[in-house]
Design brief:
The protein is mainly alpha-helical and 376 residues long. It is built from 15 helices and two strands. Helix content is 55%, strand content 2%.
């Protein structure tokens, strides 16, 4: 935020950003350029980055819409996305990825979305290049249309560069960011022949389009870094929500409103072993699910000491902010996960699935197919 503020308000940074423009102005004057030639040259130099950014903005929105339409993971809410992530994890069977998802869900969600977008752009490079070039051509045509419309509207009236710039920048405002204040240094140029100005602008814009198309074709892949907001960032924002995690099993709150005042809750909890819960004074994992634990007579230890699971809210924050329904719901998915990654979990946390943490026989019958069915 500090950097952005300085960029917007520091006069030295502003002048440095305009250095090339002022240098071009000086060179044009030294060459004896006419007022109209100089005016058009300066204007088109400013139009180039504005057009590029406008094209990027539109292309970014189109890519985002394509992803929402063609990728089921992005066509619903975050719960839908999480199910797709769980399917992806079950298919990949990579323990480290699971640990990232369980312990740092927001980071994992963002990485998953980013990789999907990058993969989409990589596999559809030709289509996206055509999309970009079409948007580029369309936007330049819009600028040409504005050039003609503004000139026609001012024909026969009191003509000057300042008034033409007022109309031109206002008309382009809905197409791109083209602030009028950037042209204070040319608004008093001696420009009275608007027809000549229109013709010069048309010629320069045609050259500008050809140059931009040439630059675009020089890179085979669309560089996502040129977007102010990448498609994956837009998707992440749209599919965000509350990222609070259950203090017992790390399941993510399903509320779509960050900072909501109501209790946190999830549709399905997990075995507490996924985050290394264990029985006190033993090396045995605690494998029961939260929804089962809150019906038991077992206690857990928090900063306030020992608290029965049945009255877990009495342990204070964060427990008091969670609503855990004692419904004994247990997904086969997490039973399969425990059985599949038993050695890795034991190595990571230093506890064992023995004694009080013995894995039930019916859990061992949970297959990958059943796990995938749970998150369809």
């Amino acid at each position: 935020m500090h950097t952005a503020f300085r960029r917007a308000n520091d006069p030295l940074i502003y002048l440095e950003s305009k250095r090339d423009q002022y240098l071009d102005c000086f060179r044009s004057f030294c060459k004896g350029a006419s007022s109209v030639t100089f005016f058009v040259d300066f204007l088109c130099r400013c139009l180039k980055p504005a057009i590029q950014q406008g094209v990027c903005d539109k292309t970014c929105i189109q890519i985002t819409d394509e992803m929402k339409s063609n990728y089921p993971a992005f066509s619903g809410n975050r719960s839908n996305l999480e199910n797709h992530i769980l399917r992806h994890l079950a298919e990949q069977k990579e323990f480290d990825s699971y640990m990232e998802y369980i312990n740092y869900p927001k980071d994992y969600f963002e990485r998953f979305i980013r990789e999907c977008v990058e993969r989409y752009c990589r596999y559809n490079r030709d289509q996206l290049r055509r999309m970009f070039n079409t948007n580029l051509s369309d936007l330049v045509q819009q600028v040409l249309k504005v050039n003609t419309t503004v000139t026609a509207a001012l024909e026969g009236k009191q003509n000057n560069a300042s008034l033409w710039l007022d109309k031109f920048c206002t008309a382009l405002g809905s197409q791109m960011e083209f602030p009028r204040e950037d042209f204070r240094n040319i608004e008093y140029e001696d420009v009275t022949d608007l027809q000549f100005l229109k013709e010069m602008m048309a010629t320069s814009l045609d050259d500008l389009l050809q140059n931009l198309q040439k630059e675009s074709s020089s890179t085979p892949d669309l560089d996502l870094k040129m977007f102010r907001r990448r498609p994956d960032e837009i998707l992440c924002e749209a599919l965000s929500g509350c990222w609070e995690q259950c203090p017992f099993c790390n399941a993510i709150c399903t509320n779509t409103i960050p900072g909501h005042e109501t209790d946190h809750s999830v549709q399905f909890h997990r075995s507490k072993a996924v985050m290394g819960r264990y029985f006190n004074e033993t090396d045995n994992f605690s494998i029961d699910f939260c929804t089962t634990a809150v019906t038991s007579d077992i206690s857990f230890r928090s900063c306030k000491g020992w608290t029965p699971y049945k009255t877990y809210r009495e342990a204070g924050e964060p427990y008091s902010r969670w609503s855990i329904t004692p419904d004994n719901s247990e997904l086969s998915y997490w039973k399969w996960f425990i059985c599949t990654f038993r050695p890795q979990l034991e190595q990571r946390f230093g506890f064992k699935f023995t004694g009080l943490g013995e894995i039930p026989e019916d859990w061992k019958r949970s297959t990958n197919e059943l796990a995938l069915k749970d998150v369809q």
